[in-house]
Amino acid sequence: MENVRDPRQHINEEPRDDFSDTAVGFGVMFGFMFVVFTAAVVVKFIIS
């Protein structure tokens, strides 16, 4: 690589779908937070 600043020489080795990655990340985080919320509601219900 002669010119390290030339973007044409940096080939994207693994093309990814950014929208799909964002949607999956959002879905996983939403699911995790839903489980945490449900557990907190159950604990509060048991305590009171």
Structure summarized in a few sentences:
With 48 residues, this protein is mainly alpha-helical.
Low-confidence stretches: none
Percent in strands: under 5%
The averaged pLDDT comes out at 87
Distance between the termini: 67 Å
Write the element-wise H/E pattern from the N-terminal end onward.
Answer: H
Largest sheet: none
Rg result = 22 Å
Q: Count every beta strand, where a strand is a DSSP E run of 2 or more residues.
A: 0
Structural class by sheet pairing and helices: mainly alpha
| Helix content, binned percent | 55-70%
Number of H/I helices = 1
- Bulk shape: rod-shaped
Region (Disordered): 1-22
Biased composition (Basic and acidic residues): 1-19
Pfam families: YqzM
Keywords: Membrane, Transmembrane, Transmembrane helix
Describe what you observe in this structure.
Keywords: Membrane, Transmembrane, Transmembrane helix. It comes from Cohnella terricola. It holds the Pfam family YqzM. The chain is mainly α. It has a domain of 30 residues. 62% of the residues lie in helices and 0% in strands. The longest helix has 30 residues.
Feature tags:
YqzM family protein; YqzM; mainly alpha; single chain; 0% strand; rod-shaped; membrane; 48 residues
Fold topology:
Layout: H1 18-47
Region (Disordered): 1-22
Protein name: YqzM family protein
Biased composition (Basic and acidic residues): 1-19
